[in-house]
Each structure stands twice: as structure tokens, then as C-alpha cells.
Amino acid sequence: MSAYMDVIMAGFGGQGVLLMGNVLANCAMERGLEVTYIPVYGAEMRGGTANCTVVIDSEPIGSPIVHSPRSTVILNQPSLEKFQPRLAKDGVQIINSSLVDIALVDTKRHSVCIPATDIARELGTVKMTNMVALGAWLKATGILPLKAVQDILHKVAPQHYRKLILANVRALEAGYSHS
Amino acid sequence: MSQAPERILIKGNEAIVRGALDAGCRCYFGYPITPQNEIPEAFSSMLPEQGGSFVQAESELAAVNMLLGAAACGIPAMTSSSSCGIALMQETISYMAGSCVPGVIVNMMRGGPGLGDIGPSQSDYFQAVKGGGNGDHRNFVLAPATAQECYDMMFSAFALAFKYRNPVMVLGDAIVGQMKEPVRCVPPKHALTPEQLMQQGEDWRLEGYDRHAVPEPRVLRSLLLKEGQLAAHNRSLHEKYSAMRQEAAAEQVFCDDASLVVVAFGSIARIAHSAVRHLRQAGHKVGLFRPTTLYPFPEEALRALISSGKRRFLVIEQNLGQMVEDVRLAIDGQAPVSWHGILPDLYVGAETLRAPILEALEGGKHV
Predict the structure, then answer these.
(1) Cβ-Cβ contacts under 8 Å for B217 (sequence gap 6 or more)
(2) Which residue ranges form the domains of chain A, and what is each CATH number?
(3) Subunit contact B180:A42, Cβ cutoff 8 A
(4) Which of B153, B161, B330, B334 supports an S-S bond with B168, CB 3.0-4.6 Å?
(5) Same topology for domains B8-199 and B251-361, yes or no?
(6) Which phi and psi (to 5°) does residue A82 adopt?
(7) What is the residue extent of each domain of chain B?
(8) Which CATH architecture describes the domain B251-361?
(9) Which residues does residue A114 pair with via DSSP β-bridges, in sequence order?
């Protein structure tokens, strides 16, 4: 049986959108699944917009590109405007309510609103917004266990960032248990 | 039993580098351009570690001429660029074909014409397959669709380059180059070892002339002015290009009973693969024919599909209609061929291809 899931992750450049996708894709691979990760890039810079698509399946993946995603992680306002209309009918969107006007969230959609930036700030730094949001996505989709994603950080993080792993493990946990 | 190595999550660009290194590539010359910059980036650290040479050249012209020099010495070597950068290299690619030296050129296509943009596109099909350089020359053109194929095809690329003493182009695009996928870095079965590859050049490579040891100096050139010399040379090239046809290859999915066969290559082929699979599940008789060599074009395999049933063909490509010409030449009017083009910089998903495939299946527009 196919265990298919796809997600578009989007936000400002610098919010760690691509890192979030990489962590997820590496974890899926470690679990023996097929996975594709593709960044949509332009002449990107901090403060611009960035997004990536991750497709996870138990079978070989054809298209790495998804028009109507089954899930999204929305870290800022422009990303909501861009991707909410494209979300699949029964899809789920994780929304960073710290930076998104939740009045614009379509109530007909399955949405998980989480103040990811505020939670990350309380945990020490807003730079962990991405991991809080990823935690919430893991809870909402149930595709991969939280522990597996926390463990993969040890494999993905470069040597000079090892000291930050524990804080990121906590951020994942905070996002997972919030929703 | 030995354990298969772990899968690693890497971009197609990095898979190109790892494949090239494992195949025996000893030199890389290049000039930066998006969307292939991970290729020189990875080579810059990995190649010197293995005792090879990495040179960031001052221009694409310099890079490809360094490739010509290394290739003339029988060294497995390569360059890479994207679209407009590859356009700058065409003169030397023609010289390489004329002088019969092996070399690998990777083109991760971006939008064109001109500087275009940095998004995905397949609009260099003509440039790669029909040749942008002068004279009667042909390049092998290989078209990977996955990161694993990026790794595997580098072995074929170097093997073909040395077997036929001819330039080989690996034609990907921004999707193939930028997408990360799990890759197992294991040399394919029957791949030459780097030592076997090097041995292929023993009869012709330039090693420095020692008149006491060798009767005649070896000369590699494309300028042949003596009467009849170029004609004889081009006759042998013609024979070589004919022999190259046996290397044509394609992947076929659900083609046996398909009423409609979608023909696509590279990134668009894998997206079409998803669309075709979904349509099959819904009971539609559609199949996919994916050339993995664009030159030589797998025309016999494609033609064989005509005789085995009443069917039509739909070419899907991210350009304004290029491979469709080779498909029509192969089909030669024996079956209806329609075409669906995708504009550059559009990231299309499988859902986007559903409608044009269904329309063609129902015998819609015949462009």
C-alpha cells in the first residue's frame, strides 16, 4: 500500500524553510521511504520568500512537484496568500499565527494555527520557528514519529551547530505538543 | 554478503559529481552559473582530495578548451554549465568531435533564449541534439530524470566518450539538478573501472613525443587541408555516427496495450510518469516512452510501437516544440502525433498534465 504525503513549506528567506524540508526529507529516507525535496529558488535573499516541496512515498516518486499539496507549512503572510488557494480539498495547513493574520485563514480548510515564532522566542530564539512548525506538522499528519525527526538532527546538523541540537529537539517537542 | 552502502540525500548536481568521480573523472574545468553551481562546488573539494585537478576557469570558453586539452591527453575530464554557458562552448565541442577526443559536458538547462531565467526548461534540446557547433558532428546526449540516474549515467557518459572518442553531453535541467533524492553510490554492473577507462586511450592519447621510442608523433586535430583528407575523415565519422545508433535507449512504461503513448524526457518524463500512473489507475489506456538517449534518438523502439497496435502519440516537453520533430521523423506519418508544450520557469505537477493527456487520448487537437 502506498503511504503518500506531500507538503509545501513556505516563508521568508532566513526562516529556515529549506532546512525544515531537508530535515524532513532526510528523516523520511532514514525510515526507508522514497522522498524528493525540491527548493523553488530565485535570486533569493534574507527577507525574500522561499519555499520547498517534499514528497514522501513508499513507492518510487514520479513528480517532485505538487500543484495542490496535501499539506502546507505557512510561516508568513505572503505564503498564506499564495498557497491557501492551492491546498487540496482535504489537505491540512500549519499556520504560524505569530506572523499571519488569522482572519484571512479560510475556515472551510483544516488549519492548525500555532504561534510558532512566539513559542520559539520563549524557548530562546525566533530562529527555531521552523522546528516548532515542523513539530506541529508531524502531529497533524502522523506520517513520521516525532522521535525519528528529533534523532535525525544529529545526522543532519553540521559539526559547528551540534550545540544547538538540544534546543531544536525541544522546539520540535513544543510544536508537537501544542497542537 | 556485503552490505549495500547507505542511501544519501543529495541533489542531482551532486550525484553528477559523485558519479563522475567514481567513474574515473580526473579533471574538472568550469565557470559558475545557476542552476548547476553545486557541480563545481562539490568538485572543488572532492576532486583534489582524490588527486585530480579542479580549475575554476576565467570563462566558459577557457573551461571547454581546457577540457579539449585534457581529453587530448586521454584524461577522463569534464565541464559543466547551463544553456547560455553551453552556447559559448559550442565551437570547441565541434573541435572535439572533429579531433576525435572524448569529453563529458553537463548542461543543467535553464530558460532561454539569451540569458533567459534560472528556472527549469528543456529548450536546449536542439542545441544538444542537433549541435550548436559547425560541421557534420554529433554528440551523444544522455537525459537523466532522477538523482540516481545522474550518478549512474556518468559511468555511461565516460564509457561512451572513450569508446567512440566523441563528446558526450548529459542534459538535465533545473529540476534534475536542484532536486534532492536518496542515491546509492554504487557503480552500475558492467561499468568500466577508472583503470580500464584510462587504458582506452593508449593508442591515441598525446603523451609527449619521444623520437627514439616512437616512429611517428601522434597528432590530434580538426584541420585537414590535404586533398581528400577531410572527405576520408568525415566518411569515418559517418561510420562512427552510424555505429553510435546501437547505443540508443529508452524506458517504456505501460506501453504494451496503450492507446496513447506519451513521449517525454528528463524531469518532465518523471512528472508525466505520475500522471500516466494515475490515469492508468482510473482505467485509461495510456503509456510512457522516455528516451534516455536523445542522440541517438531511440527511433526504432518508438517505431516498433506503431506496428503493434492502433495508437497515437503525445509529446510533452518544456519548450516550444523541439523533440516533437524527432518523434515525427521516427513515426514518419504512420500514426497521429500531437504535442503539449510547457513554458519555461513553470513548475508543473502531475495534475497539470492530466487534461492534455486525456485530450490527446480522446483524439483531440492534432497540432
Answers:
(1) B209, B211
(2) 5-178 (3.40.920.10)
(3) no
(4) B161
(5) yes
(6) -80, -45
(7) 8-199, 251-361
(8) 3-Layer(aba) Sandwich (3.40)
(9) A96
Nearest chain B Cα to A37, which residue? Answer: B180
Task: Say what the ipTM of the complex is.
Answer: 0.94
- B273 and chain A: CB distance < 8 Å anywhere? yes
- Per-residue pLDDT tens digits for B138-155: 999 999 999 999 999 999
Cβ contacts of B270 on chain A, cutoff 8 Å: 61-64
On whether any CB of chain A is under 8 Å from the CB of B199, the answer is: no
Residue B308 confidence (pLDDT):
63
**How do residues B283-292 score in pLDDT, each as one tens digit?**
999 999 999 9
- Give the residue-averaged pLDDT of B33-60: 97
Read off the amino acid at residue A14.
G
**How many Å apart are CA B15 and CA B176, to the nearest integer?**
10
Nearest CB among A40, A42, A63 relative to B350 is that of A63
A26 Cβ under 8 Å from any chain B Cβ: yes
As a whole number, the mean pLDDT across chain B is 95
pLDDT 10s digits, B285-342: 999 999 999 999 999 999 999 976 679 999 999 999 999 999 999 999 999 999 999 9
Q: What is the pLDDT of residue B1?
A: 45
The single-letter code of the amino acid at B131 is: G
Question: What is the DSSP annotation of B211-240?
Answer: TTT-SS-----S---STTHHHHHHHHHHHH
